[in-house]
Amino acid sequence: MGALVLSQGGTFDPPGVDSFFLPPIFGGVTKPIVLVVLSAVIVGAYFFFATRNLKVVPGRAQFAAEYIYDFSRNTIARDQIGAKDFQRFIPLIFGLFTFILVNNIFGIVPLIQFPTMAKIGFPVALFIMVYVVIHTVGFRRHGFLGYFKHVMFPPGVPKPVYILLAPIEFLQKFLFQPVALAIRVFAAMFAGHLILLVFTLGGQYLLLEASALFKPVSIISFAFAIILTFAEALIQVLQAYIFAVLSANFIGAALAQEH
Amino acid sequence: MKTHVVLAAEGEHNPILPEPAEIIVGFVAFALLLFVLHRYAVPRFEKLYKERSDRIEGGIARAEEAQAEAQRTLEQYKAQLAEARAEAARIRDDARAEGQQILDEMRSQAQTESDRIISQGQAQLAAQKAQVIAELRADLGRQAVDLASKVVGESLENEERTQRTVDRFLDELESTSAPSTSTSS
Predict the structure, then answer these.
(1) Considering its fold, how many domains does chain A have in total?
(2) Contact (CB<8Å) A16/B47
């Protein structure tokens, strides 16, 4: 290993899966669990207190809260679900977007620096909720058999093609799309965090352990860590947006009268 | 290959197998967050939106109302103006007609007055003439009788005869003088 050649002492353990399995803080409570609760408290408290005294003409603080709400409500929920039905899904979409956003942003907040969605348990929790909502509204709108027909037999296709299309559509709607929803945000956060770890820990190793000749290289490593932190910030916001948009899109598709 | 070995060595951790504790905590935390948003944040925002759109719609409605009011006032004003114009024209026509009427009245009045004056003059003249004639007749009769009595020497004591004589005389006189008076006058 190159690291062994470079080092004066100590070996470089590259960050891996184990970096995501931190020892419990106390009892069975781990850092991600603390963070996920903290994120719910932050979002809940923020919107609880920010909306206590809303003015028709918003102030600076109200404008910020309103902007986020407006974005979730109009840009995500209304555009994807349609103006007729979107009203009752606003809390879900709004909650998904803000909750995932805060949890993702945790990945680059100093001292916290752990994107909770990199632990697949949390995306799965959200996935279960969204999954139940999508198919519940679908069954309620179209009836039990009607919903299967709605999912598996999209109109405008030559009849023989349904032999292939119907199972594909079924798997697509009931398995692949929702599972991909959960895996997408998990994988993005997992990979992003790993990359940041590699550059940060690598830089640290180069600075502390490498021979004098290689110590300056750590600057490059840290610079990359910083640049990638900005990239991560973008990805974290984007992933929260994508999760909310796709959830809204699936709800809209389940509710749609025709494809 | 090394990483595979490392992964295998750390095999008890699999990143794509969810931990039940995380699912449960994540689910409960998110459910509670949803409750807060559903119960407090979203209704408040929606109330604000409604209030805001109401206010905008109210403003538009008020503006429309003001415009309608202005239109109404303008129409009223125009109607009043037309009415006033008609009124003025009517008064002018009335005045003209009245003037004409007064003029006609005056004219006819003057006519009747002049007619009256003329007829009055004529009547007066006729009366004076009759009076003069009567006076002259009486005078003439008396003088004739006097003259005749002087000539005859006999008093015409008999009133009846006297009267008859005078009348006859006068009738004669009249019948002779009538053509001369008509020509002379």
Answers:
(1) 1
(2) no
